[in-house]
Amino acid sequence: MNRDNTRTLDAIEPRIARFISDQGFYVLRDKATGIALNVSYTPEGLKWTMAPNGSGKLIFFRKAHLIRHYNKTTLQPTKVEIGGDVRPSNKVYVEKFIPTNQPTNRAQKAEYTWTDKAYKMAVLNAGAFPA
Fold first, then answer.
1. Phi-psi domain of 93 (left: phi exceeds 0; alpha: psi -120 through 50; beta: other)
2. What is the per-residue pLDDT across 71-85, written as a single tens digit (0 to 9) for each?
3. pLDDT value for 2
4. Phi, psi at residue 19, to the nearest 5°?
5. Beta partners for 36?
6. What is the pLDDT of residue 1?
7. Helix/strand/coil for 26
8. What whole-number distance in Å separates Cα of residue 45 and Cα of residue 108?
9. How far is it, in rounded angstroms, from Cα 82 to Cα 45?
10. Please, which residues have CB within 8 angstroms of residue 38's CB and are 6 or more apart in sequence?
11. pLDDT at 127
């Protein structure tokens, strides 16, 4: 417990952090807070990160959104594109993902979330791709 009687989150285990950092993942972080927003195998994969408020905004870009194309007969989606202002946002940045302990519970919870996702991606996909 800390001074305001809220439970502080445990540190990320060094062996887990090493394992994740050795996998070569990338993380999208909020520039103002350093909070992790998503992880991916490539920086390209982070471009599809949506705002958590359900607005449909792609936060990697300044003011982009998804454009869905549908088959006129079956009404099934046929293609998804990124539209709008696709210049990179100055509010986020991409870096190699090395899980680190964060100073606030909110930031630490986000770091746990994306560390867990990266771990599952690494373990579940182990051997799924030819070397």
1. beta
2. 999 999 899 899 999
3. 46
4. -60, -45
5. 29
6. 44
7. strand
8. 23
9. 13
10. 27, 28, 46, 49, 114
11. 56
Where residue 115 falls (left for φ over 0; alpha for ψ -120 to 50; beta otherwise) is alpha
Question: Which residues, other chains included, contact 45 with Cβ-Cβ below 8 Å and sequence gap of 6+?
Answer: 26
User: Alpha-carbon distance 31 to 34, whole Å?
Assistant: 5
Q: What is the pLDDT of residue 55?
A: 78
Structure tokens given for 36: 């992790």
Query: Which among 111, 90, 94 has a CA at the least distance from the CA of 42?
Result: 94
pLDDT digits (tens, 9 = 90+) for 50-60: 988 777 789 99
As given in the structure block, the two tokens for residue 14 are 């060094």
Tell me which residue has tokens 């994306």.
114
For residue 70, the one-letter residue type is: Y
DSSP letter (8 states) at residue 9: P
Could you tell me the two tokens for 64? 């982009």
Write the DSSP string, 30-97: ETTT--EEEEESSHHHHTTPBPTTSS-EETTEEEEEEEEEE-TTT--EEEEEEEEEEEEPSSEEEEE-
- Six-digit token pair at 33? 């807070």
